[in-house]
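Q: Hi! First time doing this. I have a protein sequence and I read that you can turn it into a structure. Is that right? Here it is:
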Amino acid sequence: MSDYHNPDLDDLRDIRSLLAVVARLRDPEHGCPWDLEQTFRTILPFTLEEAYEVAEAIENDDMVELCEELGDLLFQVAIYARMAEEQDSFDFGDVVSSISGKMIRRHPHVFGNAEVASEEEVRENWEAMKAAEREAKGKRLRTSVLEGVAQALPALVRAEKLQKRAARVGFDWDEIQGVVDKVREELAECEETLAAHADPLDRVHEVGDLLFSCVNLARHMGVDAEQALRAANHRFERRFQRVEVILGAAGKSPAPEHRDEMERLWETVKKEARWRA
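A: Yes, that's right. Below is the predicted 3D structure, encoded as structure tokens:
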């Protein structure tokens, strides 16, 4: 295991300073008890959280917050690499070497003499190189075009990736109207399960099919479904909080007995938002 120098407060822009900080946190004698207890699995939830906080900073166009959140995400990489180094698996340098080499290999039109005619050709070459790399590593060749789409992805993201994989081999709608009709069909099937004695599992399946179709519609409209839903969540949050403020000014709070008033205020707030836009 390599020895990292102690953090130099006058040189914190150097990546070696971060690695030194992480090494000290994981030092068996002088480190932090919490950091020493962490494993790859216990750190994982924090990594996912940090990635979403990066996304939120980008959506808010907050460059100051983005800088901080990227730092938090980089720390995750550094501590994973340190834990791997402690068990003689790999170190931070190996991580950097791996991704640098991969990007160079997969961009021969940038770092080599290859020529590409379109973005689509770049994507096709990328997938071909990924398959070649898997074969070179002795990994089993994929038996399905859908293999390799991570199960841990958010459901909307994974749905879009699965659809894109299927679309590559021609399993897709030729016209967006077909997708629109499919959404209507799935909505109608959801309505059918509203019957009093409908199987609850049928409702789960039909709602799932409707959501999957909505992702397909978003894809054909050139919209990222995950980002669209996140934006809708933000709009709902802002508008409802505005309703709460107006109610509070009248000495009231959200409650079932104020439902009609809340709906009226909701429409007012929506009009305010459109006017400001």
